[in-house]
Amino acid sequence: MIEYKINVPLSVEQYRTLLNRTTLGVRRPLNESERIDSMLKHANLIISAWDNDELIGVARSLTDFSYCCYLADLAVRDDYQKQGIGQTLIQQTQNVLHPKAKLILLAAPQAVDYYPHIGFEQHPSAWTKN
Description:
Layout (H helix, E strand, L loop, with lengths): L1 E5 L5 H9 L12 H10 L2 E7 L2 E10 L4 E9 L8 H12 L5 E3 L9 H4 L13
């Protein structure tokens, strides 16, 4: 049985291990421990999925809890995908937010077809800058 937890502290190594077992790992600075640590410390909403004591999924967000929530990372271990864990992580995230708060994310290339399937709408005017 998968257990979902809210804002349970994650170690850099737990997070790195999880992301290495997902397609998201190649797009995150996994070899930079200080950045990963900062990413975890400064996220103000982390929903994690656990199979016993193993971290198998995470939704890491930055939010004001009322108007908007940026879902920065949604990751489910490859061998646990297609079991509804990602959808449950999203639902658990939304459960903590105001009912009218918007959930915002940037889709990984491999997940671009996943999000419309679970009710997300593509927005034509999102911008990024490095």
